[in-house]
Amino acid sequence: MPILPRSFVMKPLIAVVGSTGTGKSKLAVDLASRFNGEIINGDAMQMYCGLPIITNQIPVEERNGIPHHLISCVKLEEQPWWVGRFKNECLRLIDEIHGRGKLPILVGGTHYYTQPVLFKNQLVGDDPTAAEGDGDRDDSESSAKWPILDAPTDVLLQKLREVDPVMADRWHPNEPRKIRRSLEIYFQTGRPASEVYAEQQRLKQGQLRFPTTVFWVHSEKQTLNDRLEKRVDAMVEQGLMGEAKRMSDYVQEKKAQGVPVDQTRGVWVSIGYKELAPYFEALSSGSLSETGLESLKRSCVESVKSATRQYANAQIKFIRTKLCKALVDAGATDRLYLLDSTDVESWTQSITEPSELIVRALLDDTPAPDPKSLSELAHTVLGAIETEPQSESTFMTKCFTCDICHKTMQGEDQWQIHIKGGVHKRTLRRAAKLAARDEYLRRQQEAPKEEDGVST
User: Fold this and answer.
1) In the chain, what are the domain boundaries?
2) Confidence band (pLDDT; 50, 70, 90) for 390?
3) Confidence of residue 399 (pLDDT cuts 50, 70, 90)
4) 164-168, 238-242, 314-318, 432-436: which range is least confident on average?
5) What average pLDDT does the structure give for the chain?
6) Which of 269, 302, 394, 453 is 20 to 30 A away from residue 123, measured at CA?
7) What's the pTM?
8) For residue 445, how many other CB atoms are within 10 A of its CB?
9) Superfamily of domain 6-137+205-223+309-387
């Protein structure tokens, strides 16, 4: 019987994470080419077909003949994939790739999709109560069983307060899908979602599924922002407007047929469509002059750039808080390697050489370098994460409502920032002045009555 290579027996996995615009796809192709790998897409938007520009799919000519899975495989009219479905399909593909004696490489920026693949029984993302294997649920089925799930958000939130005040305190009133999901869990299980989640937390089963190396491709903020702005301009030149218009036309066509399109999910929330929607609405209605349309178009493109920068920040925040915390819990912080892609001209020295050295160490089961030793940026960022105090659990985060300012904040940190902020203090002073004025007017109105009483 032939002796199998150690790397084949150990079933390793490479994960490539990072914000948009840092070079994740290029690194994945480089590693797959070097180590006989296959790539699994971990970007929720890149799963949609027919929209390569708006979803930033790696061009076929740049894939170097490497098989890419779960990319351009979902049609516009199909239901969006939930996290559980993605996880199950991804694990199936990883098993198949291992079966072919090849190295699976998971790459993508939808980190709440990829993290449940990396860790056993990991509840992550914005809805931590979504149980594993729950990715194929259909909203229409739940609505048929429990019609209240289609009620307005304020009704859902009130019902959730009755059955699960812990989760009701956690969600912001502007998070209808999360409120709905928490209530749905209660109906499905007969138990509060907070209780279900707390029980799973107690199991402490957050270990890595495979011998894994995680590469975090990262760039300094200003350089990344400049890169993202240029990339949006390039996307416009390559046909971004055309793809967004096809999406807009699809929505209008379905609307004419009396078929509503849920634009709060799936590719309809992708950056590049929703920001350009006002332009296409004005174009369709003929409400603006040609000059007005051009001005609106420029404004919408600027919104795409702004949203892209914000998304990059959110991706980095997820890695720093959720991914790093999961690695700490799993005792696997030495599996995370930050690769500095700030200077693309030094890609070979900064990315290719260290990543190949680290993958070889994983496959040969030999010592790998200290993650902080790879670059000055790695030393700074990873060192800062190590010294950061553990933030409050995502699950335990509560919402606080300021009755004076009529605003709702998530978490103690945001609440403290608000009550110490200038806006809140000015509102308090203004409220105090109004209260004093009302009291003065009240007394003025009562004074004549008292005088009348005396004279009588």
Assistant:
1) 6-137+205-223+309-387, 226-307, 399-455
2) low
3) low
4) 432-436
5) 86
6) 269
7) 0.73
8) 9
9) P-loop containing nucleotide triphosphate hydrolases (3.40.50.300)
Chain segment 274-317, per-residue pLDDT in tens: 999 999 999 988 888 999 999 999 999 999 999 999 999 999 99
Looking up tokens 């915390």 gives 325
